[in-house]
Amino acid sequence: MRMSTIWQGVLPAITTPFDADLAIDHDFVTRHVNWLVGHGCKGIIPCGSLGEGATLSFDEKVALIRTCVAAAAGRVPVIPGIAALSTDEAVRLARASAEAGCGGLMVLPPYVYSSDWREMKAHVGAVIAATALPCMLYNNPPAYKTDFSAAQVAELAAEHTNLEAVKESSGDSRRVTALVALLGERVRVGVGLDDMVCEGVAAGAEFWVAGTVNALPKESVAQFELAKAGRWDEARALYRWHLPLLRLDTVVKFVQLIKLIQQEAGMGHERVRAPRLELVGAEREEALATIRKALRERPVL
Q1: 258 neighbors 249 (Cβ within 8 angstroms)
Q2: Catalytic residue among 138, 144, 239, 259
Q3: Residue 63: enclosing H or E segment and its boundaries?
Q4: How many Cα atoms are found within 13 Å in the side-chain-facing hemisphere of 256?
Q5: Distances from the Cα of 210 to the Cαs of 1, 36, 183, in angstroms?
């Protein structure tokens, strides 16, 4: 089979910006996408966990996807997160994404419901089979309580030629090693947690689905490219600076924290939709201290 070329580099899982009424700010989406692409990002991923996808209606997701496709203007692929409470809705969203001109799909387990391999395979298999678009399976057992093993990914890949990639977010770089060892060139593996980008690349990851890139695309792209080039002394030096911010991608309130980094960096606002609430009090001040220290010490690249 011929593998598509979209699984490479830094792929931002973008936040969803809201205006004062908590409606999607499509003008900012356009500006943000252009800014990320202009800094060397290789794709755009809307409607994921970081994008508060569970709080967006079906129509809002489709509208957001269309805005991203228009803003990307063919320069990079738009690869929306496909997740829903039901398999039927996830399939409909996959097909709507294809009709909107997306270049691929990031396929998630269903919201809320987590069960055995038979049911999870049926769900993600239906979404992958819904279009001819190349697909990336999203494995995030801490968040979704569903863990796709390397053997299960291989089983899916044997049945679906358009399953081409895995976003590995278990937090264990050995899972990257296991996927690469079992699947070789058949399925590309990407890092899905910000604070294991260097470890993931060292284990064989080909791309990075990144979060803090929403505020720091220049530094994120440099971090990934240094690691991919094997320039480990330079990569580690940048990683040491970057790590306190990267770790903000791995906690329960990662959406609030990354939006706060964006606000401090001058590219976004901390508004979130309930049940999330903006950070307050000591929690917010502690986060701001970490963010502002990193921005003061921002390296010259």
Answers
A1: yes
A2: 138
A3: helix 58-72
A4: 16
A5: 28, 12, 23
| Residue reference for tokens 């990075």 | 208
Give the whole-angstrom CA distance, residue 198 versus residue 126.
33
Residue type, 115: S
What is the C-alpha separation between 6 and 94, in angstroms, rounded?
Answer: 17
Q: Which of 42, 61, 144, 167 is catalytic?
A: 167
The residue type found at 147 is D
Indicate if 121 belongs to the active site: no
Name 134's Cβ contacts closer than 8 Å, sequence gap at least 6. Answer: 4, 6, 7, 103, 104, 105, 162, 164, 165
Q: What would the mean pLDDT of 88-113 be, rounded to a whole number?
A: 97
Q: With 90 as the cut, is the pLDDT of residue 114 above it?
A: no
Q: What is the pLDDT of residue 140?
A: 81
* Tens-place pLDDT, residues 247-291: 999 999 999 999 999 999 999 999 999 999 999 999 999 999 999
Catalytic (active site) residue 167: yes
pLDDT above 70: residue 1: no
